Amino acid sequence: MSLTGKVFIITGGSKGIGKAVVKKVVAEGARVVINYNSDKQAAYELVTELGGADKAVAIQADASKISEVEKIVSTAVERFGKIDVVMPNAGMMSMIDLEHVTEANFDKIFELNVKGPLFLVQKSVPHMPRGGRVIFVSTGVTTLTSIMPPYLLYAATKAAIEQFTRVLAKDLGKTKGINVNCVAPGPVGTDLFYEGKSQQLLDMIGNQSPFGRVGTPEEIAGVVAFLSGDESSWVSGQVWRVNGGNMV
């Protein structure tokens, strides 16, 4: 499998799953625009690790704002001339139940998790050739029967993402020849995932999988790389639940 010559936009690409995807696709021959929000050092260290400006460029932008999304897209086109794969990976989890929801926190999570991805795709599509890919990011939480009340807003935003996947696969497949899919990870061992959790809690979460552990960012990146390449040309409109049997 080779991604040689393909140009990626990955928001939230300097850490966690986004970083693993960046490293995987560059290793397969792609060039990447890495969007970050606040951690400039992490983003530029990643660019250096990847081999410099010929392979990747880092751009600071708030992926929840349309004007900032336009900046990401224009950077990709100016630097690399096209966009082959768009992965709106930036997102946030807000744990708030109905009683405590405010208009401010509702707007914040929907702007980053829903509005930003939609408009990133809209602004990117005019620069994408036939055979391009859109890869959204959801979560296994959308299918949990035992979902807890504080997941209210987060689960709702990711449900919207899954509907974007289904509808845009019909739209962009017919009009542009672009495949649209979504990865929906279960628990993944990123720095953010481990933060603030006791070993007892981590063991409990890991043991929910028949493999007795959580996933790794690299395992999610492998699925994204597949969905980005020619081997997935007949895959579109699908939500890939990458969770090691944790959420079935």
TrEMBL record:
Organism for this UniProt entry: Rhypophila decipiens
Presence of keyword Aminoacyl-tRNA synthetase: no
Pfam families attached to this UniProt entry: adh_short_C2
Domain of life: Eukaryota
GO MF entries: oxidoreductase activity, acting on CH-OH group of donors
UniProt name for this protein: Uncharacterized protein
Protein family: Belongs to the short-chain dehydrogenases/reductases (SDR) family.
Keyword Protease assigned: no
Keyword entries, A-Z: NADP, Oxidoreductase
Gene3D superfamilies cross-referenced by the UniProt entry: NAD(P)-binding Rossmann-like Domain
